[in-house]
Each structure stands twice: as C-alpha cells, then as structure tokens.
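Model it.
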Amino acid sequence: MHYYLKSKHLFIGDTTKAVSGILEIKDGRIVGHFDYNTPVEGEILDAGDKLVVPGFIDAHVHLYLSALIHLGKMKAVGGPTIDEVVLQASSIPEYNGWKIGIGWYASDFGQQVLPTKEDLDRASTDVPICLIAGDAHTIWLNSKALEVLELTPDAIPQNIGGEAVVADGELTGVFLEAKAIYYLSKVLSVYKDDEEQALKDYMSYLNKMGVTAVGDVALTGESPDDIVYPELYSKVEKDATVRVSFFPAMREEVERNRELYKTYRSDMLQMGGVKQFYDGVTSSHTAYLKEPYPMPFFEGDVGGPLLTEEKMERLTLLANKEGWPMRIHTVGDKAIALTLQNFKKAQEETPFDAPNKFNTIEHLEVMDPTDLPLTAQPSLIVSVQPSHLLVGYETLDEEVGAERSRHMFPFKSFLEEGATLGFGTDTPVVLDVTPFESMFNAVARQTKEQLPVPCLMPEQRISIGEALKAHTSGAAKALSRLDIGTLEVGSLADFVILDKNILESDAMELLNTNVEATYVNGKCVYKQ
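Modeled.
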C-alpha cells in the first residue's frame, strides 16, 4: 500500500497548530512529508480544507468491561436515592442467570450512606443481582448473589485489600476496592461466550469516534484477577482495528509480568507497563487526603493508602528497575504528593533505558497547588480524564470541602508548570464520551449541556490545540509509545479526517464535529 495524504490542515502533533502539506504513506507508516504544492506521482487522498489529525488515543480505559457494556447486556442504573436505583434494578433483563447493572454512586444517597442486600432484595430474591458503582470501585449484591457466590464473612479472602462491609456480623452486600473487583471478575464470567465478538464490535464503535489506540489498565492492584486479559485480546488481534497497550497490576512477584512483557510486543498489542492504586475515591472516603474530610466517617478521617506507603514506594522503584513504566491511580492530595515523590526517586535511581518510556500519574483530582512543580518531571505524564471534572460536580464541596474543591482538576496549571497532559475517559466510569466531548470538557469546563453556569474554575480552561495534543501525542506517551500520536515521519499511519478545522472553531463547535474517516496502519477502518 502506497499513497499520498494531502490537506491544507495537517495537525502533525506535539504542537498546537496545523500546517498544509502532503504525507507519503507506505506499508502502514508515514515515510515522507512534503510541501502542499509539491508534485507527487501516485494515488492521492485529498482531504482538502478538512483537518487531518493523528488517531485519537484514549489513554485510560477498562477495555473488557467497556466492551461487555457495549454488548448491551448490562443496564445503566443510577439516581439520587436507593429506592430509585432498586426500582431500575428490578427491570434489568436477566442474562445467563444474572442481572447486572452499572452507574450508581453511594455519594448520591448522602454522606455515610451505603445500601444493603436487603434494599436490593426488593428488586429480586430469586435472581442474583450485581450493581457496579459508576467509579468501578464498589459493587452491591443482593442476597441471592451472595448465596450463588457462596459468600459469608468467613469466606472473604484476607490477603487482598478493600473491604467487605459487615453489620451485626453479616455481610451487607457492599464490597469496596480490591475485594469488589475480586468478586466482580467472577460475576463477569457469565459473558464468556460473547467476549471475542464484543471486543471486535467495541473496537468498531471506537473507530467511529476516531479512536485508534487505547491504554487498558488494571481495575485493581491487589485482586488475583485485575480484569486485563491479553490472552483474549490476542485472539482478536488479526481483526483488531484499535491498538491495545495493556497495563497489568504491579506485584512484588514479577515473573508473570516479565513473561507478559516479553510475549506481547506487536504494534497492535503490547504490554506498555504496569499499574497500581495508591488510593481510592472521595465518594467512599478511600481517597488519601492530607487533611480530614469535611464530613468524616470517624475522627481524623483522611482516607488512606490501599497499600502501605512503604510498599507503594517499593513497588514503584521495583517497576522502574525492571524497565517497566508505572501508572498509579491517585485521587487524594496525599496520594498524589507521595506518588510524585516516588516517581522522582525511581528515575533518579534507575532512569529509563529508552526514550519511549514514561511513568504516568492518573487522575490527580484533589490537587494541592504546592505539589504542582513535581508534575513537570521529564519522564512523567499527567493522565487526566476531563469528563470526571463534571461527574458529581455539585457535591465536590460536600465531599472534600470548598477550599480543596476550587483547586481540583487544574489542567491549565499542569501545562504552565511544564507537565505533559494525556487525556482519557476511564470508561466505563463514564460511558460513550467522544474525544470531542472530552476536549470540550477541558476547554469549556462544562458539560455538553453547558452546565454549570458559570463554568467550573474558569482559570483552568485550556485551548483546543492543547486539548487536541493531550488526546493524541500526550495520550500516546501515557501508553509509553512514540510510534503513534503524531503524523511525523516514521510514525504508524493512524489518522482521522474531521469534517471541520476545530483549531479555528470555538468550544461549542467541538460538539458539532464529526469524524469523516478513520485510518489504522494506513487502511480505512471507518468511513462516514
């Protein structure tokens, strides 16, 4: 395959502007870049005035779970009261003996309010029900589900973190963090016969959004099953239209990860590094803060690390010593500060041996401004999810306090410090968010319905060019890849043709932008 791509507006990447020009594409790579008026011989794909950008990269996804949800066998549930969610749960279609839903948040029910199995029993006592929290850090089971999974207080594994909530000596049906994922992986086995087709269909769906690569990250750092499945992904690799870089959980026993890192090195499927979780989320007070929560669950409640501070430092240093980029989930300001310090120490002791390797700090929601300078480390990517800014924004003051909430999600400040931003969605924590919506969230600091008014922390708005860079070259670096994310000579030929030049538009035009065509390895995988 050999042809030329011509456009008056090429977003080459690692910049915030477009240029006119011609790209030569051969055997799936970009092999030449010429001035717009250079005469060339051969097939020409002429995009005219339309903007051509590198394929969008979603730096942070949970691929398997997202594909299953896209399959349509899992219902979205949520609402401001337990009764409303239970009512929705009763109408979930039964599939292979289970009813499974996702989307509820305990914080919507009020601070220090958790639902129970008895609540969910009102939806069904005959069919097991599993409701996954919207942040994917908690599950809620009814009594029948506890029975099917043979769960009792004595049966809960004690060698992994998280919590099986108990009241009066009985399980309440709510499980947090690693213990939640431990049992969720067992529930998801009901989809075994559908998973390969679900993955292919989901990749086609991502192509329609212009997404050509994703970073699939572990859903837990401790459970034996982290819901990252390279063996499954390899079964669909020959038909894949989305590149997958996966990041299994980082453990002190490194042999399995060593084998994975050697085995999966192709352009379409590779182990990009490892993942761990320093803390949880603010809604369940598992995010690790420097100062107590405004409505503490107990005196001095600052949340806490999911692993000890000593173990998190040890795992970070070990990962970098092995040559593996490390991605760490951090939401609370204490977790963020300690992670930034650990990354700095790790790179001082054992710097990476290749320019395409980057540690990645994830989320950085409750950000202490005094720690901003540490985000500018040269081998570090700040991976954020702009849509998270608008998830439950009405309760931020209540969850973390007004002073802390006004410093949350400081995208502009990261850039001003010299940090590199990478964008993602964290799907299925948020569902069906397009790259244009993510960029709009970051540029306008509002939902696509233009709420709230005024926008959240207007001083933290960034430009469309900065947002586009974060969703392409910045996101590629979060995957520890330099062969995608730009249209530079030598890059793989993943690109998207948009129906307008968003760099010359206002924020609202992002929501009216369409993908006309998506190419992976120089081949068209979607055409409008």
